[in-house]
């Protein structure tokens, strides 16, 4: 299996409002650590014994558990860094979708920030393909709380490493800073792409036998 490589850091992330370059650079180191670890895990998986497995302990089981944790650590951080670097001013079709699903943009923002304050890991604004609606999902860890059949439009990292250098225990100030740096162009691009995909799936449901 080929190795994955860390994405280069966007220089715009070193010019954020309220999130320091030092905070971002330290955060990037953590992300690169996940990239290194997933490559090590996948290398070992090519050689590990797959015989006589059980759900209590085997080297294979440990590698598979850590594979999930670390690959999500890679992907979630890439999504996080990508949706930073903007003006924080919401615009585009995602705003109309938020109004439709939450009643108003302000109602969505209030719920998103509340979920962030309650989270130990991540909060993901996601398009759920099962009900075709937007949801703020809370994931306490890379491998805990990620919802199947839902894809991320916007994500905030609420692990302490994301904000502690700048804000210590003042999580709410970090959340406010994050909101001021959202790149809504990225969010809209994700939304438009996923909406098109969801429409295709919905159309297929009317022409093919349901999977459920």
TrEMBL record:
Record's keyword annotation contains Oxidoreductase: yes
**Residues that bind Mn(2+):** 77, 157, 161
Question: Source organism's superkingdom?
Answer: Bacteria
What are the protein's GO molecular function terms?
Answer: metal ion binding; superoxide dismutase activity
Q: What keywords are assigned to this protein?
A: Metal-binding, Oxidoreductase
Q: What's the short name of a Pfam family annotated to this entry?
A: Sod_Fe_C
Residue intervals of the Manganese/iron superoxide dismutase C-terminal domain: 91-190
State its Enzyme Commission number(s): 1.15.1.1
- Record-stated family: Belongs to the iron/manganese superoxide dismutase family.
Q: Which PANTHER family match?
A: SUPEROXIDE DISMUTASE 2, SUPEROXIDE DISMUTASE [MN], MITOCHONDRIAL
Q: What name does the UniProt record give this protein?
A: superoxide dismutase
Organism of this sequence: Heliorestis convoluta
């Amino acid at each position: 299996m080929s190795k994955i490589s860390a994405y280069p850091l966007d220089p715009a992330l070193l010019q954020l409002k309220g999130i320091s370059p030092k905070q971002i650079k330290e955060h990037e180191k953590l992300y690169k650590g996940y990239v290194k670890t997933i490559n090590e895990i996948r290398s070992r998986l090519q050689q590990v014994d797959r015989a006589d497995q059980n759900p209590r302990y085997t080297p294979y089981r440990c590698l598979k558990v850590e594979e999930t944790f670390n690959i999500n650590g890679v992907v979630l951080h890439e999504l996080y860094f990508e949706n930073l670097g903007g003006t924080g001013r919401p615009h585009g079709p995602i705003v109309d979708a938020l109004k439709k699903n939450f009643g108003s943009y302000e109602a969505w923002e209030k719920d998103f920030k509340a979920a962030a304050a309650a989270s130990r890991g991540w909060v993901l604004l996601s398009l759920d393909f099962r009900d075709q609606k937007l949801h703020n999902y809370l994931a306490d860890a890379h491998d805990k709380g990620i919802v199947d059949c839902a894809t991320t439009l916007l994500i905030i990292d609420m692990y302490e490493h994301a904000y502690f250098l700048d804000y210590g225990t003042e999580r709410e100030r970090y959340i406010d800073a994050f909101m001021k740096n959202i790149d809504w162009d990225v969010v809209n691009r994700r939304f438009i792409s996923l909406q098109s995909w969801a429409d295709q799936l919905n159309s297929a449901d009317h022409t093919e036998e349901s999977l459920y």
